[in-house]
Amino acid sequence: MIEFVSVTKKFPNGQIALDDLNLKIADGEFIFLVGPSGAGKTTLLRLITRETWPTAGQILFNGEDILKIPSSKIPLLRRKIGTVFQDFKLLLTRTIFENVAVPLEVLSRPDQAIKEEVAAVLEKVDLTQKADSFPVQISGGEVQRTAIARAIVSKPQILLADEPTGDLDPQTALSIVKILEKINEEDKTTIIMATHNSGIVNHFKKRVVFIKSGKIEGDEKEGKYEAD
Predict the structure, then answer these.
(1) Integer-rounded Cα radius of gyration of the chain
(2) From CA 67, how far away is CA 174, in angstroms rounded?
(3) Residues 150-167: pLDDT tens digits?
(4) Domain 2-220 part of CATH 3.90.1150.10
């Protein structure tokens, strides 16, 4: 479980990204994090991975305050968290298979285990036939599916997705979120997806947490979102 306890994040220029925010996310939940640009969505995600620090408050992950984890153990925390970016961050000189294999290589997994686990996750995201292709040879939706495969190949407890459908057409965006839903249901992975896409949010009817000016202004199970 993830819990934000009275979390405030104030930047040096005086901007307040999060303001005394309290939020509980249970294991296995699928949450849409919504709100206008600058509301604090990305900051919230970056706090979970400890890429940034709060000004005040606690962030608990499985009951442990992640702010008290020594810097030397942050890589262990991040192995439990998969991240999908809007800009993909794939390695252009590596094939799809090789891109997905990177997290397992970092973990020094045996070659045969890497082969089997990458093949399994490529099948899950319907990219088996693209394993030997390079990122520039596949579509935007396929690139995003590659990014998802890379994020889940090491079986994280949590998957953070920051605007993963932002540059995709509506049909492709729908297919991407269906894959995330499948991962949530089959692997019991907790998913937190920040998005502006009201059509996606309203289609899937998940828990919707609405943030505005750093505060939670709505938290609804099977919620809807009327984007500004």
Answers:
(1) 18
(2) 36
(3) 999 999 999 999 998 888
(4) no
